C-alpha cells in the first residue's frame, strides 16, 4: 500500500470514534439543576436523591443525560446569576428548589420547563395558576402545608410542657413565611404560649435575637424551613443548646448536628419524586398539565442526648412515633 493511502486510511479510522462521540453528545438530554443551599452534605444528599430517582427511570449521566448543577448558598444574587447561566445554556428542563431560586428562574424564562422541589406556597408566589392546573412552564412539589405549624407547637409542648414562650426563627422575605407564622399564631392560644418572631437573616442577627429571647425563662424555639435556617443550622443548634432552649426543627440534619428534635417532610423523598416529573417532561409532557403535588412522607427525629442535656424526659408516646432516634 502506498504511503498516502495508508495515511488516509488511518485518518478515516480515527475519525470514526470521534464522530460516534459527537453523535452521542448531541443525543444527550440536558438537565439544569439549581439548588438553593450550600454545596455541603445536605445539598449533596438532595442531589443524590434526585440522581437515584432519575437513574431508576432509565436515565444515566454521560449516556443519555447530562446534569449541569449549581448551588446558590441561599443568596438571591447568586440565584439570579446562576439562573441566567443555566437558561443561556438552553437545557431541556431545569430542576430547582426554594422560592428564591424559582423566582429567579421565572423572571428570566417562560419557555424552559421548570420542576421545583421544596417550595412552600407556589400559588401566592406567582409560580403557578393553581395546584391542580399550573398553567405555565413551572410545576413541582410543595414542601409543606401551613397546618404543620400547629404540629410543631404540639410536639414542642409534649416534650417540654413548661414552655410558655416560643420564638419562631423566620425569614419574612421569603414567600410563605407569613403564612407559616400565621398558622403558628392561630394555634398558639390552644397551647397557651406567647409567640415572638425572630429574624433569621444572618448569623449576627440570629445570635442577637436568641440571646435577647433567652433572657426570660421557659422559652422554646420553632425553626421553620428556609434557606437561611439551613445555611446557619449549626449556629442555631449551638445557640439553642447554649441558652437551653428546647427547639423543633424542620429536618433531621438539624438533629444530627445536635438539635433536640425535628418534624417535617422527608425532603430526600421529595427530590426523588421530582425525578418523575423531570422524566415526564423529557418525554414530552408539559408542566402546565402536571399538577403540583403535596408531600406524602414526614419524619420525626429525636436526639436523646440533647434531651438529657436539657433535662427533658422524652415521653414514651413521642418516642414510639419517632422515625429516627439518635442516642
Question: What layout of secondary structure does this protein have?
Answer:
Elements (H helix, E strand, L loop, with lengths): L2 H25 L1 E7 L5 H16 L8 E7 L4 H13 L4 E5 L1 H8 L7 E6 L18 E5 L5 H12 L5 E6 L6 H12 L5 E6 L3 H11 L5 E4 L4 H5 L1 H10 L4 E3 L2 H5 L4 E5 L1 H16 L15 E6 H6 L6 H6 L2 E3 L1
Helix pairs in contact: 2-11, 3-4, 5-6, 7-9
What does this 3D model show about the protein?
There is one protein chain. With 327 residues, the chain is of the alpha/beta class. It has two domains: 29-143 and 279-296, Rossmann fold, CATH 3.40.50.2300; 148-265 and 299-326, Response regulator (Rossmann fold, 3-Layer(aba) Sandwich), CATH 3.40.50.2300. It has helices spanning 3-27, 41-56, 76-88, 99-106, 148-159, 177-188, 203-213, 227-231, 233-242, 252-256, 267-282, 304-309, 316-321; strands spanning 29-35, 65-71, 93-97, 114-119, 138-142, 165-170, 194-199, 219-222, 247-249, 261-265, 298-303, 324-326. The strands form two sheets. The protein has a seven-stranded mixed β-sheet, sandwiched between helices. Helix 4 links the parallel strand 3 and strand 4 (114-119). It is elongated and about 65 Å long. It starts with a helix and ends with a strand.
Amino acid at each position: 500500500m502506498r504511503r498516502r493511502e495508508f495515511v488516509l486510511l488511518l485518518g478515516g479510522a480515527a475519525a470514526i470514534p470521534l464522530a460516534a462521540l459527537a453523535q452521542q453528545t448531541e443525543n444527550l438530554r440536558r438537565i439544569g439543576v439549581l439548588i438553593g443551599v450550600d454545596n455541603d452534605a445536605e445539598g449533596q444528599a438532595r442531589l443524590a436523591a434526585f440522581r437515584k430517582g432519575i437513574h431508576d427511570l432509565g436515565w444515566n449521566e454521560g449516556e443519555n443525560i447530562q446534569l449541569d448543577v449549581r448551588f446558590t448558598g441561599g443568596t438571591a444574587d447568586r440565584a439570579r446569576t446562576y439562573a441566567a447561566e443555566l437558561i443561556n445554556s438552553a437545557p431541556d428542563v431545569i430542576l430547582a428548589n426554594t422560592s428564591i431560586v424559582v423566582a429567579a428562574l421565572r423572571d428570566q424564562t417562560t419557555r424552559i420547563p421548570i420542576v421545583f422541589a421544596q417550595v412552600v406556597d407556589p400559588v401566592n408566589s406567582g409560580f403557578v395558576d393553581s395546584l391542580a392546573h399550573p398553567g405555565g412552564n413551572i410545576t413541582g412539589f410543595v414542601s409543606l402545608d401551613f397546618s404543620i405549624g400547629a404540629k410543631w407547637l404540639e410536639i414542642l409542648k409534649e416534650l417540654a410542657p413548661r414552655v410558655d414562650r416560643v420564638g419562631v426563627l423566620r425569614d419574612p422575605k421569603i414567600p410563605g413565611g407569613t403564612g407559616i407564622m400565621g398558622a403558628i399564631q392561630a394555634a398558639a392560644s390552644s397551647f397557651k404560649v406567647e409567640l415572638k418572631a425572630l429574624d433569621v437573616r444572618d448569623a449576627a442577627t440570629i445570635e442577637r435575637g436568641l440571646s435577647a429571647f433567652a433572657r426570660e425563662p421557659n422559652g422554646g424555639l420553632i425553626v421553620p424551613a428556609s434557606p437561611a435556617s439551613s445555611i446557619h443550622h449549626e449556629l442555631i443548634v449551638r445557640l439553642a443548646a447554649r441558652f437551653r432552649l428546647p427547639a423543633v426543627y424542620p429536618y433531621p440534619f438539624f438533629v444530627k448536628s445536635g438539635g433536640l428534635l425535628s418534624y417535617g417532610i422527608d425532603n430526600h423523598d421529595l427530590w426523588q419524586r421530582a425525578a418523575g416529573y423531570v422524566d415526564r417532561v423529557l418525554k414530552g409532557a408539559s408542566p402546565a398539565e402536571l399538577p403540583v403535588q403535596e408531600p406524602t412522607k414526614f419524619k420525626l427525629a429525636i436526639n436523646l442526648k440533647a434531651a438529657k442535656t436539657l433535662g427533658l424526659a422524652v415521653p414514651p408516646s413521642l418516642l414510639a412515633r419517632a422515625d429516627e432516634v439518635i442516642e
